[in-house]
Model the fold of this input.
Amino acid sequence: MPMAVLIIAGLDTGGGAGLKADIETVSALNEHPLPVVSAITYQNPNEVRGVFIAPPETIREQIRAVRDAFDIRAVKIGLIHGGAIEAIAEETKGLRKILDPVMASTSGFQFLSPEDVGRLKKRLVPGSIVTPNVPEAEVLTGIKINSVEDMRKAARVLVEELSAEAAVVKGGHLNFTDVLYWNGEVFEIPGEHAEGFTHGTGCAFSTALAAFIAKGLRLPEAVEKAKRFVEGAIRFSRGEGKAINPIWELQRDAQRWRSKEELGDAVNRLVKMGELLNRHVAEVGTNFALATDFNEVFAVKGRIVRYDKTVKPVGPVELNASDHLRRALLKMREFYPEVKAVLNLRYSEELVEKAKKLGLKVSFYDRREEPEEVKRAERGTMEWGIETAVKRLGERPDIVYHLGDWGKEPMILVFGSNAEEVVERVRLLIS
Ligand SMILES: Nc1ncnc2c1ncn2[C@@H]1O[C@H](COP(=O)(O)OP(=O)(O)OP(=O)(O)O)[C@@H](O)[C@H]1O
Ligand SMILES: Cc1ncc(CO)c(N)n1
Done:
């Protein structure tokens, strides 16, 4: 059964940090978020323009409404205003608290005044698990932090002197190692730099920590898991939000399911054209590949083969069932990410001429032009071929052919923005 996690945080209109990231994080971890709005920010990925502070009484009433109905297992406190500290401290009494002492946005907007920080230290740090980044830990403890050793010192001070239950000093601004002090013990949680957007990392980290605590994990395990969660959210943060993507794993799994269905349906339609298709199936077999936004590639296991007068898929649609088409497709997607599907046919001049007549964009590569070092590397041929064909045409090709490669058999690759488009192109080509 999902556990209730209370989140007291601000809205980020840019959809990167704050409550939106928090709700996604708790949902991605399969627990139930209880969102309490503490502020509304006027914000985009580049700047925070301003903030509307929720009156303390509205925060108090929000918390009361959910406390009366839910068994709350953890509370995450994010962006708050000084005036609300007292109400929050009173209303969250007795709950396990994770306090992310948000003082300024990454872009430099100041949320908490020095007096607010004083109140925070007095009323909310004691008893909480605090998760400051390096600058926040410096402000809270007065310790200048330049090393992991300094992080350890600051974490200890937060617990021993400021009475926090535990402290996680986050190394996102230093070396990606996080330092946890808890129960008189120091834990170093090493991390590696993840490439991607980092707006929202602090919010997702403290909320993931709250969710893992709600699941009943011990603190060191919960911190480790929260850190890995954020690394994934950074790594798969490509896209519009210019921020982390806490639900990448759900999206990836949903896309797996949908892509498998989409390709399976398309293969069925293709097989219905069996008699027309038969003579265009390659000697090595024809395959049909579809990529997800996460660059996972489905294809037909064992390929599609000639069968009497018709054609037949040998096995089911599976992940990574075609190495050649996967590499061709991923290379094409580096230039044109909107291309998602590809199918190979036996080469014939007739098909190439038909493609041109139909107005499809046709390009090619010639293995005789392949540089020696690519040839020797062997596995780079497909990538080199696609890149050569793309650059030759100067725009997105629908068809790429070559006159001898892949077991030396000449081949035509039919690309499309989805599996259906490829089926349609094949239908036009062979009819
Ligand atoms: N580029 C990165 N690669 C890997 N881990 C990172 C990266 N940036 C931050 N982290 C990790 O993300 C978590 C959040 O830390 P960070 O120091 O970024 O918090 P923050 O400064 O409060 O975040 P925000 O910028 O959202 O305010 C930590 O576990 C940190 O180590
Ligand atoms: C609403 C909100 N909370 C937290 C942060 C810190 O990243 C932010 N920029 N906006």
Notes: Residues 248-271 form the longest helix (24 residues). Residues 17, 106, 133, 170-173, 176, 178, 191, 193-194, 198, 200-203, 205, 227, 230-231, 234 surround adenosine-5'-triphosphate (ligand 1) (CB under 6 Å). Residues 4-246 form a domain with the UDP-N-acetylmuramoyl-L-alanine:D-glutamate ligase fold (CATH 3.40.1190.20). The chain has a mean pLDDT of 95.
